[in-house]
Amino acid sequence: MTSPKTNTPQQQIYGYTAFNIEKDERPYKCFEMLLIFVSYFLLIICPLALFCCWVVIKEYERAITFRFGRLRKIEPRGPGLIFILPCVDTYNVVDLRTLYFDVPPQEILTKDSVTIAVDAVVYYRTFDATMAITNVQDYKKASHLLAASILRNTLGTKNMVDILTQRESLSYAMQKQLDEATDPWGVKIERVEMKDVRLPHNMQRAMAAEAEATREAKAKSNCCRR
User: Fold this and answer.
1) Could you say which architecture CATH assigns to the domain 98-206?
2) Three-state DSSP class for 79?
3) How confident is the model over 43-69, as pLDDT tens digits?
4) Backbone angles phi and psi of 12, in degrees to 5
5) Where do the CATH 3.30.479.30 domains begin and end in the chain?
């Protein structure tokens, strides 16, 4: 009895196995080969179309190519010139540089029932272009939505004083949580920074009045000592 075929970790990550690819291609292989032949034939009779077949991939970019909707190679292509066969191949370009996006102000109800508005900035980079394209529909938009959700959920369990005094540790906790969630997408979260914490106007006035009263009390205390 033969042992069942096992998938390598890399094959499992992308949802592909060599057996499945080979099995899926059998019924359509002849038809696909015919379309490829026709595409090359059209290029031969119309050489000017060759100028549309070459794509420049920059040093900080990688291209993920598909043929008839199937991933051609797990390893991305580039940098430099790559050949794309018209009507047969499609491609997606992924930027590998460290990028950033702003999390718009989120209305958050803290643990002590204070409504605040908090925004943040997230720095990230793509470490696996193939996973970023094949494992999620839109890795950028998904990262944006997930960052906003984690920001609300994390700060919603904290008191207002903790949010104001522990911003660095809270930012680090959100960075770790977001990084773990985006790892299957090939995205590395490098840093999360809380920008502004906006308090309700009535609370701002109350805190300002309390600070003013504290200063006046200290001033009177100093005068009495003299």
Assistant:
1) 2-Layer Sandwich (3.30)
2) coil
3) 888 888 788 899 999 999 999 999 999
4) -70, -35
5) 98-206
